[in-house]
Amino acid sequence: MNKFLSILSVILITTLLITSCDLQRPYPSLLIVPTSDQPQNSSVPVSEQTPLPTRTTYIPGELVDYTAQTGDTLPALAKRFNTSVGEILQANTQIPSDATTMPLGMPMKIPIYYLALWASPFKILPDHAFVNGPTSIGFNTAAFVASQPGWLKDYRVYVSGEWRSGAEMVDYIATNYSISPRLLLAILEYQGGALTQPGIPEKKNLLGLKRQFWTSHYLQLVLAANELNNGYYGWRSGTLLEFKDVDEYLIRPDPWQNAASVAIQYYYSKIYAGDNYAFATGAEGFSLTYSKIFGDPWSDPTVLIPGSLRQPAFKFPFPNDQTWSYTGGPHTGWGTGEPFAAIDFAPPAEKSGCVTAGSVNFSIAMADGLVVRSSIDGIALDLDKDGDERTGWVIFYLHLAADQRAPLGAELNAGDLIGYPSCEGGHSTGTHVHIARKYNGEWIVADSAIPFNINGWVTHIGSRDYLGTLTRGSSIVTACDCSDADSSIRSDPP
């Protein structure tokens, strides 16, 4: 049987090489000269290192082997394997019922209920290479882009009130969406030859994403970042279990997949179908381009989300003894759609809309921390105070007025003024503050195994974004874009 499978694999690979010349391949990846912070491209592609498992049908409830991956939670695993948290706990008595994230590498037995049409088990990219987290530290986007012959180093775009270079554009998107700049560069190279091809392309919709007026190279990369996050956090939370390619064919990710790989599958489903999609998401597609540029990402042992991760204690984002309205249940941390990491609070006001908050109605630091980013695009409060929002716990604030907004480098204690709620920064129809959490650069979904917990009030998602509740014991506050009593919540001293 092993000999037969080996022969079959050779036939399949040979067939791919013969037929792939007819595929609509993106730009070929040329040899890229390594910079000082770039590993020499001597590693063997992961497709040659790790044999892919063969998926088959399973008896309903059959126990299958699974090794925990970074960020795994029982609710998400239950959805992926079409089972229940209770059944997983019954098969794995070593896991406590109140477990949050699974420790990387922990062997598990998972009851599986087979679904047809599971997609390729090939893993494209590890999660730590997806987010703008610890493995992005030390990478100098500007220096790297300047060292390459491609058109990106000559690209200029006007973004958020200033002209930015191609590298600055990438870093701007990487920071706001919290996606690795290496990943964004690899996408620009794979689909647009940004690092190797001379001459800035004149074509619109460079990445193939169709949305009216979003045709510039910058806006295409914004759309790409948004779709990547939708795929990553949809898989992470268990809300994205299947999707369709541009020809409306169903794609159901393999249950053993990791979030970053599914994110890239989801992204390319928005652009390709059939053989083109299979090529882009296979071993010779985007994955190979990435490894040629940056080396084998799987050789980095970084653990993005540790086991048993728990949120530190948080205060409400407004002063003690004040009553504000809970105006936004779980919704996007940045962009549209996933991740549903943010919630909103609005100060008391005599009328709705974008009004000036009263002098006493300011937002506060929800925990001790260091301000490591402060602009119209938000404030990042770094709780481990190491000066980098790509590590540890970070609280992200949006819609704080420029006047009296905490400056970069300010060290705040819990309860200190951090800014005044407003409509500034992004789209807003009323004065409020938007807050979200990140850990090691990954947005932490508000209603998850690590719930957004503020003074004992726990966030729950609603039937759609911006709806939902805060609960503490039998007390319930419903998110409402209004000022009625049902949405009011008081910040009592702990």
Give a verbal description of the structure:
With 494 residues, the protein is α+β, with helices and mostly antiparallel strands. The chain has three domains: 62-112, LysM domain (Membrane-bound Lytic Murein Transglycosylase D, Chain A); 119-299, no CATH class; 323-490, Glucose Permease (Domain IIA). 23% of the residues lie in helices and 19% in strands. It has eleven helices and 21 strands. The chain has helices spanning 2-19, 46-49, 74-80, 85-91, 141-146, 166-177, 181-192, 217-237, 259-269, 274-280, 286-294, and strands spanning 62-67, 107-112, 156-159, 162-165, 243-244, 250-251, 323-332, 340-346, 363-364, 369-375, 378-382, 393-398, 411-412, 417-419, 433-439, 442-443, 453-454, 457-461, 468-472, 475-478, 488-490. Strands 7, 8, 10, 11, 12, 13, 15, 16 and 21 form a nine-stranded antiparallel sheet that branches. The protein has a four-stranded antiparallel sheet with strand order 17-18-19-20, with no helix packed on it. Strand 3 (156-159) and strand 4 (162-165) form a beta hairpin. Helix 6 runs parallel beside helix 8, helix 7 crosses helix 11 (286-294) and helix 8 (217-237) crosses helix 9. The longest helix is centred in the middle third of the chain and has 21 residues, at 217-237. Mean pLDDT is 89; it is low at 1-24 and 29-50.
Ordered list of secondary-structure elements with their pairings:
Blueprint: H1 2-19, H2 46-49, E1 62-67, H3 74-80, H4 85-91, E2 107-112, H5 141-146, E3 156-159, E4 162-165, H6 166-177, H7 181-192, H8 217-237, E5 243-244, E6 250-251, H9 259-269, H10 274-280, H11 286-294, E7 323-332, E8 340-346, E9 363-364, E10 369-375, E11 378-382, E12 393-398, E13 411-412, E14 417-419, E15 433-439, E16 442-443, E17 453-454, E18 457-461, E19 468-472, E20 475-478, E21 488-490
Antiparallel strand pairs: 1-2, 3-4, 5-6, 7-8, 7-21, 8-15, 9-14, 10-11, 10-13, 11-12, 12-15, 15-16, 17-18, 18-19, 19-20
Helix pairs in contact: 6-8, 7-11, 8-9
